[in-house]
Amino acid sequence: AAILSEKLDVPHISTGDLFRANIGEGTPLGVEAKSYIDAGKLVPTDVTARMVEERLSQDDAKNGFLLDGFPRTTEQADILEELLSKKGEKLDGVLNFEVSEDVVVERMMARGRAD
Q1: Which residue range(s) make up the domain with 12?
Q2: Helix (H) or strand (E) holding 36
Q3: What is the CATH number of the domain that holds 61?
Q4: pLDDT-based confidence at 113, cuts 50/70/90?
Q5: pTM higher than 0.85, yes or no?
Q6: Domain count, the chain
Q7: Is 99 within a domain?
Q8: Is 115 a member of any domain?
Q9: By percentage, how much of the chain surpasses pLDDT 90?
Q10: Residue 56 region, left (φ>0) first, then alpha (ψ -120 to 50), else beta?
Q11: What confidence tens digit (pLDDT) does each residue in 38-63 have?
Q12: CB neighbour list of residue 67: distance below 8 Å, 6 or more residues apart
């Protein structure tokens, strides 16, 4: 995703990066997300969607963006479509990269995750 983002000259927007940035900055959304993460729960869709919406409103995303990790569900896809529609925008395309379970586990372990 990072290579594609660089080639297209658009920001690579990762939900994981959004969580880390918001938590690190102590934003209200970060505090809310951290409470779920600390409890071992998934961050609810509405919290994630609000982070994505805030990020997409930044200047560097006005000419395009590459989302990584969002949407993951049909509900999130509907929310994304609604967010973009409010701005008079739509998606130009979607890429789905399939990764083997072994590679996913290897990446998670490299990040220090055992879940």
Answers
A1: 2-110
A2: helix 28-38
A3: 3.40.50.300
A4: low
A5: no
A6: 1
A7: yes
A8: no
A9: 71
A10: alpha
A11: 999 999 999 999 999 999 999 999 99
A12: 13, 52, 80
